[in-house]
Amino acid sequence: MPRSWFHRYFLYDDNYRNYKIPNMDKLVSSCCNVESVPKEYVFPPELRPGNFTFSVSDSTPLIDLGGLDRAAIIQQILRASQDFGFFQVMNHGVDEELIKNTSSVLKEFFEMPAEEKATLYSEDPTRSCRLSNSSFSYGGQKITLWRQILRQYCHPLDKHIQQWPQNPPTYREVVGNYTEEVTKLGSVILELICEGLGLESGYFKGEISENTVFSVNYYPKCPDPILTYGLTAHCDPSLITILLQDQVGGLQFFKDGEWISVQPLPNSFLVNIGYQLQVISNNMVRSAEHRALTNSREDRISGAFFISPTYETIIEPAKHLLTSSNPPLFTSFSYKEFLLNYQANFANPHLVLERFKLQS
């Protein structure tokens, strides 16, 4: 089987030592001060952001997790997960100072000189932490996204944290504390969804949510944002994704035939519904197609905390939800199998679940 996005990001590959490691000067940060976009970052005209209409949303679901009415919170989450596929949460229990410190130390990391980050740059999929670019093929052409990604495995934390950046000096302590708190928040959100779907308490505990990864995306300011993407349109392969954003806009979701720009709110998180939750709910909730644009004024940083099944976990519609009038819409599959298919169809999110749909 040829090496793939899946092997680079999710699986061990015994042949990884044969990878040719790109030079650090290939990182997108080396293009920060250029006057034009290098050709390897330029998308074909028909795919460029300017070809699609979009608007700024003032109706993004915002859910107060600190409210007293649990039933109302659950209904708000379900409604947002059905209608939008994402929502923002406030009063979520993660300390505001910890969020501020995490944002600060992530910014410090990406502001370090390239040579200080060179030891983290790798295509070795066995590493608990690595810095890399993102590329994919379109029509035989390899295109590089206008971003760097620092990908860090988080569970179990004591196993992986020693591979995380040593600089800035507070990085491991701050980000380690942050991932522990966001893991707790994810458990709260999943339990609320569990209750809303009518599943038994604890359905999303254990191996089905044990695979946690913190991916930090750095999008430098771009001389011509209309030519390239920070991240192309996709849905997340996870159960849920909890996103930390700075105050620089750039995230867009596709809804009702247009792209909607979502403005980040201070001290809040954006929660994406992933493909796994869509399957388990038998389409009661849906995954949201989204993308990231660049801008010519400011750098942007976001931290996506993916909560996913372990690779061998079997995913299928929850049996408790199935009836004669609500038959299963998807077959059973392992998360590993899903990820291979996800990679093959990454450029076309509408096809990702087709392989696993049952014939009606």
What does it look like?
By secondary structure, the protein is of the alpha+beta class. Helix content is 24%, strand content 22%. Strands 2-3-13-10-15-8-7-4 form an 8-stranded mixed sheet. A 5-stranded mixed sheet has the order 1-12-11-14-9, with no helix packed on it. The two termini are 32 Å apart.
Short description:
With 360 residues, this protein is an alpha+beta fold.
Defining traits:
360 residues; eight-stranded mixed beta sheet; 8 helices; 17 strands; globular
- Gyration radius, to the nearest Å? 20 Å
Count of helices?
Answer: 8
Strand content: 15-25%
Class inferred from helices and paired strands = alpha+beta
Largest sheet: 8 strands, mixed
**Order of neighbouring strands in the sheet with most strands:** 2-3-13-10-15-8-7-4
User: Between the first and last Cα atoms, what is the distance in angstroms?
Assistant: 32 Å
Query: Helicity range of the residues?
Result: 10-25%
Question: Average pLDDT, to the nearest integer?
Answer: 88
Oligomerization: single chain
